[in-house]
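Hi U.,

Before I forget, here's the chain from the pilot set. I'm dumping it here mostly so it's searchable later in email.
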Amino acid sequence: MSPDTLVIEEAGPCDAVALARLINVAYRVEDFFKAADRTSLDEVRELLERETFLVAREADGSIVGCVRVAAEPPEGHFGMLAVDPEAQGTGLGRRLVAAAEARARRAGCSRMSLEVASPRAELPGYYARLGYRVTGAKPWPAEALHELKAPAHFIVMSKSLGDDPAEERDG
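Structure:
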């Protein structure tokens, strides 16, 4: 698998099972502080009704990466960035973020935001390299506190979406 040969496109309802499976596999790295799956099939189906998932699809149709995108000008938001563990470190995550940013930009958004779980100490640096800056914090949702093995909150990050034609080709 080469990330350059993957097609990034919008997911459809028929992709819900594959999306839930991919997201949960990719988020196993959070098992050290969280005692539950990252998502469920029901949640993915609900999200597909009101938001967009962009997927990285191999020639055989299999999904090896995804990102959830919401665009409500002036701000877009992305989350659930997930890359199959075998494809991590190939640049696919950056490519998916660029596609999400391009989608938000086309929808009229001038800013993009995301949240990262505070125990994931490596993530703020990763997103900083993509131009994101810490802009705040949010508490962990009260209804999900029972899932935590250790204290956690969300670090909010955002960036301005300038015009970048190179990003327009993905998405």
